[in-house]
Amino acid sequence: MTLVSAASGLRRAWRNFEHGWHRITVAPSEPLEHLGAIAGLLLLLLLATGSYLFVVFDTSVSGAWQSIDQLARTGTFPGGWLRSLHRYAADGLLLVTLLHLLREFMLGRYTHFRRATWWTGVPLLLLVYLSAIGGFWLNWDQLGQYSALASAELIDALPLLGATLTRNFVAVHAVSDRLFSLLIFIHLGVPLLLLFGLWFHLQRIHLPQVLPPRALTVGVIATLGLLAAAAPIASQAPADLARVPTALHYDWILLHLHPLAEAFSPATVWLLIATVLLVLLLLPLRHGVVAPVAVVDADFCNGCRRCVDDCPYSAITLVAHPNAKAGRQLAVVAASRCAGCGICAGACPSAMPFRRVATLATGIDLPQRRIGALRQRLRQALVPGSHKIVVFGCDHGAAVAALTAADVVSFSLLCSAQLPPSFIDYALRIGALGVVISSCTEGACEFRLGARWTSQRLGATREPRLRTHGPAPHYQLVFADGGDEPALVAAIAGLRQRATMRALP
Amino acid sequence: MLYAAFAATLAVFSHWPNYQHLAPDRAVIKVSFTHQGQRLGDCTVQTPAELAKLPPNMRAPTRCPRERAPVSVELDLDGVLVLRQTALPSGLSRDGAAAVYQRIEVAAGQHRIAVRLKDDAHSVGFNYHREAVVTLRPAEILVIDFDPAHHQITLQ
Questions:
Q1: Is the Cβ pair A166, B16 closer than 8 Å?
Q2: A70/A139 Cα distance (integer angstroms)
């Protein structure tokens, strides 16, 4: 089995899993489709609650434990509650980040135009671990003592460093107030570095979703808030370097590396970390089938900027038009960033099927699935008197090809947003009984923004707007992922029935 | 239900199960020190001719090689050798301190320990010795260190 077929097998399996998941969950917004945004929300929660903890934290050996422990002892709200929220948000951040990584891996979203986003995301995982583990040291309870020493042992196992970091924790007199200033500097500095890294991570994402939809945001905050109130986090006994912490209430989510190093060896853990990182960083070098990228035709591009605004991966920029008067611009496609999704072609004002030209050439188009060819196929299918229902679908969503019948003609596009909305009006004008537009659900869209743009264009809230002169029941937008074909069959049946009703005297 | 599952995962695995880092009837001996070994070569007095060849700011009367000896340590516990380690000096020129850190779990109770340390490549046998009978309570840590100011092995 080749790597490519293995990757597509994983992708199919994950799609099936998500499809089944959607059926059993009744969440208003699908969390699986917003994992990155949930991680962003949790990071924001950590920064907010961490700011409070920073104000009350005493950066001294004698005061560190007391200042945090007091939060829980003097009442749970707001100090103890915020402290608990901080911890649970950290636990959640790591879990959600790992899930986000797993989902993107399973969906094969790490090659070609997504390579830079993947590469800039992997180091963020390390920073999440580092910030989370560093937080335990500051409490300076027995768990913090154990974690600090275990971390020092792990770092000292690296060649060239020597066993010097552990010396900071071998005896009571070895720990100084200055060390705590350094630890808090690390615990503040690493998350700031994480934010900076996040900026890089999102550079090639147009309109990145840094926070989840409102319902999900409220749900996550309420869940963590209730959890913090119901099961508040309490400090363990204060650190005592003359004694070994024995039985610990252990945070397995964030501190699982320490017992792993104990059970095997620090070198084994480093080897594991290095292997995982190496595999993750080498993954994008896998060569799969590269989709042809969008091509600009300077004769038809008027520099309107719609493709720039709609491109999900910021692959299109505008430059001065070489063959036109001053001020006019021309779209330029960065091949390494282009997903070949065709959303730009769907946004192009020149992709207008009503134009009286033999060959419909557009300002920007996809060589493998040209807009002009779509018009030609549509014309061939809708010969006068055929009275067919036209279905426009997406290669990555519900399989529309299987719906083709005597009175149904289907066209699968690279993405539903590749369809210029004027094609709906055009199909109806040249004899279609009705038009079904099948789009993936927003979170499942292979190219992030395709479903959203399709919905907004058809809802006439985004250019190019759909302008139909007939009544709306002549067409229907259906959100259907793979496996949702029955929804399309129902939509076709509905359109057919309405057409029959219209035909009645 | 989904939120409840998320909350339950966080609530459970951020506290449970307890981690037994050390068995209740055990104690720990840590051998931890950073110590510079003696220089490997002897210092030599430079002749006036040699000094004249050097820039004025580098005309030190004696010249000492930088490289230092590795530091070896041995620990006997109740007459049984439990640790033997030789640490190389740090630094590219091997002129820094040698560092040793070892954590040894032992049964709580009374133990006779003997520590030997060697930091001179020219001497035969160990330069420093320390023997003691210690009583370790459960979970107690005994740190075996080296005090360079007083040139002695310490037990803390």
A1: no
A2: 11
Four-residue CA torsion sign, A424, A425, A428, A430: negative
- Residue A253 DSSP symbol: T
| B15:A250 CB<8 A | yes
Contacts of A400 by beta carbon, 8 Å cutoff, 6+ apart: A391, A392, A393, A394, A410, A411, A412, A438, A488
d(CA B62, CA B53): 14
Measured between alpha carbons, how far is B133 from B111 in angstroms, rounded to an integer? 6
Mean pLDDT of all residues in A371-384: 93
> How confident is the prediction for chain A on average, in pLDDT?
90
Give yes or no for residue A24 having a pLDDT over 80: no
Tokens 């994983």 — which residue? A10
B14/A259 CB distance under 8 A: no
Of A372-376, A384-388, B46-50, which range is least confident?
A: A384-388
* Structure tokens given for B77: 């516990």
Q: Would you state the pLDDT for residue A69?
A: 87
Q: What is the mean pLDDT of residues A116-120?
A: 95
Which domains does chain A possess? 27-241+249-285 (1.20.810.10), 295-503 (no CATH)
| CB contact (8 A) between residue A252 and residue B101 | no
Task: Collect all residues with Cβ–Cβ distance below 8 Å to A399 and sequence separation of at least 6.
Answer: A393, A412, A482, A485
For residues A309 and A304, give the distance between their C-alpha atoms in angstroms, rounded to a whole number.
10
- Taking the Cβ of residue B100 and every Cβ of chain A, the question of whether any pair is shorter than 8 Å is answered with yes
User: How far is the C-alpha of A47 from the C-alpha of A150, rounded, in Å?
Assistant: 26
Which pLDDT does position B2 carry in this prediction? Answer: 80
Looking at beta carbons, which residues of chain B come within 8 Å of A244?
21-22, 27-28, 139-141
Shortest Cα distance from B42 to chain A (angstroms)? Answer: 27
- From first to last of its 156 residues, what are the pLDDT tens digits of chain B? 788 888 999 999 998 898 988 888 999 999 998 898 888 888 889 999 999 999 999 888 888 888 999 999 999 999 999 999 999 988 888 888 899 999 999 999 999 999 999 988 888 889 999 999 999 999 999 999 999 888 899 998
State whether residue B39 is helix, strand or coil: strand
Interface test with A, best of B2, B144, B147 (most A CBs within 10 A): B2
Cβ neighbours around B94 below 10 Å, total: 16
φ, ψ dihedrals at B71, nearest 5°: -110, 125
Whether the pLDDT of residue A28 is over 60: the answer is no
The answer to whether A353 touches A420, Cβ cutoff 8 Å, is yes
- Whether B67 has its CB under 8 Å from any CB of chain A: the answer is no
Q: What SS3 state is found at A358?
A: coil
Q: Do residue B21 and residue A156 have CB atoms under 8 angstroms apart?
A: no
Neighbours of B129 (CB within 10 A): 13
Q: Do B139 and A219 touch (CB under 8 A)?
A: no
Percentages helix, strand, coil for chain B (3-state, rounded to 5) are 15, 45, 40
Structure confidence by residue, pLDDT tens digits, A234-277: 889 999 999 998 889 999 999 999 999 999 999 999 999 999 99
Residue of A25, A170, A258 to mutate for B, most B C-beta atoms under 10 A: A170
Q: Which residue of B has its CA nearest to A247?
A: B20
DSSP 8-class letter at B37: P
Mean pLDDT of A479-486: 90
